[in-house]
Amino acid sequence: MANSLKCDLCPKPATVHLTQIVNQKVHKVDLCEECAQAKGVTDPNGFSLADLLLQASLNPGQTEAGLRCEQCGCTQNDFKKHGRFGCPHCYETFAPVIQGMLANMHKGVTHTGKVPQRALARKSLHERLSRLEEALNDAIKTERYEDAARCRDEISQVKQTFGSEPSR
After folding, report:
1. What are residue 157's phi and psi, to 5 degrees?
2. Is 0.85 surpassed by the pTM of this model?
C-alpha cells in the first residue's frame, strides 16, 4: 500500500478497516486500534473475524474449546494466538484442524522435502557405479571380456568424476 490511511476519527494511522455493503453501496471505515476498541469494533482478547470464519469453515459444529491436547493442555485458542503447538502430540490432536488448512495452503498434506542438487548428482553417480559393477561381474561370469573391459573403463571414468567432486 503506497499511502497509509489515517483514522476517520483521529490523526493516527488506521489499522482496522471495515467495509460494509448496504443496498449495493459500499461504506468503508478506517480506524486506529484505540478508536476501534473504543467503538467496540475489536475484542481486546484477540478476537478476529478471520479466525472466526476460518474456524467455522474448518470445523462446522465444533466449538473452539472442543479440542485440547492431553499431553500439554494446548487448546485451539492457544494455537491461534501463538501460532505454535505446545508439544509433538498436538499434531495428532489437532490433525482434523490442520489437515484442511494445509490442504488449502500447500500442494498437499505430506511433506516431501527437497534434495540438494549436489546430493542428487552424487546419488546418481553411486547408482550408476553400482549398475556398472554389477554389469562387470555379470560379464566376467559369462566370459564376455570385451563387455567387461568396457564396464571397467566406464567405472574408472565414474570414479574419476566422483573423486573430482568436492564432498560436503
Report:
1. -65, -45
2. no
The answer for residues whose C-beta is within 8 angstroms of residue 72's C-beta and 6 or more apart is: 86, 87, 89, 90
81 CB contacts (<8 Å, ≥6 apart)?
46
Write out pLDDT tens, residues 127-138: 888 898 999 899
Hey, CA dihedral for 58, 54, 100, 76, is it positive or negative?
Answer: negative
Read off the C-alpha cell for 66: 472442543
Q: Name the strand (E) or helix (H) holding 29.
A: strand 25-31
- How far, in Å, CA of 148 to CA of 135, rounded? 8
Beta bridge partners of 168: none
How far apart are alpha carbons 94 and 69 in whole angstroms?
8
DSSP 96-150: HHHHHHHHHHSS-SS------HHHHHHHHHHHHHHHHHHHHHHHHHTT-HHHHHH
Q: Residue 25 in 3-state DSSP?
A: strand
